[in-house]
Amino acid sequence: MSSVVTLWMVDADAVTDADLLRYRSWLSPGEEARYQRFVRSHRQRQFVVGRVLLRLALGRLMHIAPQEVKLEEQVGKAPRLAAPLLKGAAPGFSIAHSGRWVACAVSAQTALGLDIELCDATRDLHALAAQAFDADEMAQWTRIQNLPADERTDGFYRLWSEKEARFKLGLTAGGHCVAIPHAELSVVVCSEQPLAQRPQIEMTTLP
C-alpha cells in the first residue's frame, strides 16, 4: 500500500519574538526544560518553531486542535506522541531544521525520517564526506566528484541528507527515500513504506 506524506516548511526568522514567547505556552514541561538547555537563541527559536509546526501538522492530520497534541521528550530520539491515544498505529512524523528554515513531515500510513540542509559549496565537502560517509557512500561521492561544481555540491548534500533522514527513520540502508527540490536546501524524506507520490513542500506561517 502506498503512503501519503505532507511536508510543511516555515521561515523561522519571520516569527516575531512576541509570538515565540506565546508559543512557549504550547510546550510540555519536558520540552520547556529542553528549550532552556539550548545556549544559542537561534537554536531556541528553531526548537519552538519546530514543535509548533509539528503540532499544527499533526492536528490537521488527526482533525484536532494543535494544542491538543501532546509530545513527550525522548533522550537522543525524536519526541513521542503522548496524546491523543489512538487505536492502531500512531502517525509517522519527523522534524528538521537548517539555517532559517524549519520543516516537518507527517503521514498517517508510514514512519518517516526528514532532513534538510543548507547547500554551502564553501565548506570542505571532501573532509566532511571522509568523516561521515561509509564505504558505499564514499564510492558514490567519488563518482560525484567528476561532475560540474554545482552538481557536485548538490550530490554531496543529497547523500548527506539521505543518510540523516535514514538515521531518523532508524535505518542504515534501504527504505524509500525521495529528494524534494528547493532553491536553498537539500530536502530528503525517507519512509518505511513506498510513497504514492513525491511530497511537495507547503510553505506556511504560524498562526
Q: Any chance you could write out the topology, listing elements then pairs?
A:
Layout: E1 6-11, H1 17-23, H2 29-37, H3 41-62, E2 70-72, E3 80-83, E4 92-98, E5 101-107, E6 112-118, H4 125-132, H5 135-144, H6 149-169, E7 176-180, E8 185-191, E9 201-203
Parallel strand pairs: 1-9
Antiparallel strand pairs: 1-5, 2-3, 4-5, 6-8, 7-8
Helix pairs in contact: 5-6
Question: What's a quick, concise take on this entry?
Answer:
The chain has six helices and nine strands; from the N terminus they run E-H-H-H-E-E-E-E-E-H-H-H-E-E-E. It is of the alpha+beta class and 207 residues long. It has a single domain, classed as 4'-phosphopantetheinyl transferase domain (Ribosomal Protein L22, Chain A).
